[in-house]
Every structure is written in C-alpha cells, then in structure tokens.
C-alpha cells in the first residue's frame, strides 16, 4: 500500500460530537479529532466506510485535522450534559493520537474541554504511546475516563505484516505501564486478536488491570464478513497463519487470561468496550 504520510490539511467541522444512534454499545456520542488515519491497519473497517472509499488516495496515506475551536466542544458538552448522561467513544473512525497530534495538539485541546465540562464517561481508544503526553489532563478526568490501548499481539513480526505503520509493540507495553503507574484507568485492547506467542496472556495480565479480547468474527459487526471483504483470510493464508483465522483463537486467549486475572477484568468483544455502568461481564 502506498503510504505517503501526507497530512495536516485543516478541515472545518460544525460540531465535534456525533450521536451514535446506539451502534456503539452504551455510547451516546463519538468524537473524532482527525479525518483519515496514518496507521492504515490492514484490518481497519473504516477502509470500507464512505470516508475510506470516496477518496482517491489509499486509506492510511492521508490524515486531515479538524478545525474548530475547542470552545465549541465545551458548549456542546454543556448542552448535552444538561440533557442526561453523556458517554463518548473517542475515537471511532481514526486514532486520536496520530503522529500529527504531536504538533497539532487537537486531541489534547479536546481533552481539556472534556475536563472542563466532564461527560459521564469517555473511552479514549488509541494504539499510540503518545497518549502518555497527556497524563496530566487525563488525571483531571479520573473516574470518568478509561484509556483503551490496543495491543493485538506480542509478536512484532506479526505487527510488521498486519499493521506496519502502527507504533511498535514495545512502546505500547511501556505506555501501559506508565498509564497504570500514573493511576489512570487503563485497559489493553486485544482487538482484533492476532497470532501471538505463549507469553502473551501473562504479559497482558502483568501490564493492565483490564483486558478486552475481540476478533474478526465477533467484533466486525457483520459476523466476519467485513474482514473477509478486506482480504484478511488470504493475508493470513499467505503468511502461514491460517489456523489463527478462527473464532477459537479469541476463546483460547480468554481462557488463558482467566487463569491469571479475575473474570470481571476480562471483557469480550463489543461488550468489553462498553462504559463501566453497562458492562455485561
Ligand atoms: S488505528 Fe484504528 S482507525 Fe487507524 S487504521 Fe488502525 S484500526 Fe483504522
């Protein structure tokens, strides 16, 4: 895939919060600071969404930052909070910690707005260790925010094939440790579970107080059809991993984790990403 790392164009947005209409279990809104995603994961479902399809450049090669005053978000939050509990999935169609975020600071300014007008719960979903830069703001949201850091495998050889532009795993393990030590509510999101080594469950249990396990079959919202359409089966086959392309893999990891962690610390598929009040575990 072409990967020019082009980015930085500012696109206007009239509002920050998008109502979810219930497609993300337990969330009232999504919040996306960027359009596009420079991590370009092979299994990313956003590739097949209008945003990924109706652009001439390949998914993963571009990212635009949204241009809006965080004061707009503050006003939106004040209004929405007045109507009932607001639960935000931050972010659903990009990673809020794009490499561009290091200089653009859009996510940081949105977090500051959230801290000023705190919603009932925010899930900050990322795979980037850059999230640790914002620990000071995250602490202002303590009790109302969880960081969900994606670690889909402990095998760097697998990551390099399936998500070559995503941050290296060692930096993510380090970020999990740093967040935990800072007292931030954190979970490791094994989403989707990729081929892993025998040490993986132990590493997860040591690194995070909570782990969510998801796969191509339960987690793509279409019983695995979206992942098939993305060509994941043939990519696995080509790399000699076809036995890992099976629903039993997530089940096996969950069983391994149950040997090491309390049952309630293990989330499964979409329900595992729900706000604490609607956890079904
Ligand atoms: S980080 Fe998330 S949004 Fe970005 S390409 Fe990967 S799966 Fe898609």
UniProtKB/TrEMBL annotation:
Keywords of the record: Iron, Iron-sulfur, Lyase, Metal-binding
GO molecular function terms noted in the UniProt entry: iron-sulfur cluster binding; lyase activity; metal ion binding
Limits of the Radical SAM core domain: 23-271
Domain of life: Bacteria
Gene3D superfamilies per the UniProt record, alphabetical: 3.80.30.30
Matches recorded under SUPFAM superfamilies: Radical SAM enzymes
Protein name per its UniProtKB record: DNA repair photolyase
């Amino acid at each position: 895939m072409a990967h020019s790392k082009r980015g930085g164009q500012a696109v206007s947005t009239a509002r920050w919060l998008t109502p979810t209409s219930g497609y993300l279990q337990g969330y009232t809104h999504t919040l996306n600071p960027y359009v596009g995603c420079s991590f370009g994961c092979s299994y990313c479902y956003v590739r097949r969404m209008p945003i990924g399809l109706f652009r001439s450049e390949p998914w993963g090669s571009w990212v635009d930052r949204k241009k809006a005053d965080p004061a707009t978000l503050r006003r939106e939050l004040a209004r929405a909070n007045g109507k009932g509990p607001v639960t935000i999935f931050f972010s659903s169609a990009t990673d809020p910690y794009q490499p561009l975020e290091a200089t653009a600071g859009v996510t940081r300014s949105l977090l500051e707005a959230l801290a000023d007008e705190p919603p009932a719960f925010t899930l900050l979903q990322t795979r980037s260790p850059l999230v640790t830069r914002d620990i000071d703001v995250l602490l202002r949201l303590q009790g109302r925010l969880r960081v969900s850091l994606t670690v889909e495998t402990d095998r760097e050889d697998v990551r390099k094939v399936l998500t070559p532009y995503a941050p290296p795993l060692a930096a993510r393990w380090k970020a999990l440790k740093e967040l935990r030590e800072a007292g931030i509510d954190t979970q490791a999101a094994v989403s989707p579970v990729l081929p892993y080594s025998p040490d993986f469950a132990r590493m997860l249990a040591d690194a995070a107080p909570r782990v969510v396990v998801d796969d191509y079959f339960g987690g793509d919202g279409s019983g695995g059809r979206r992942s098939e359409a993305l060509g994941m089966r043939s990519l696995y086959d080509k790399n000699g991993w076809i036995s890992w392309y099976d629903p039993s893999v997530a089940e096996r990891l969950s069983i391994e984790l149950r040997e090491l962690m309390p049952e309630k610390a293990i989330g499964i598929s979409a329900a595992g990403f729900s706000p604490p009040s609607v956890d079904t575990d």
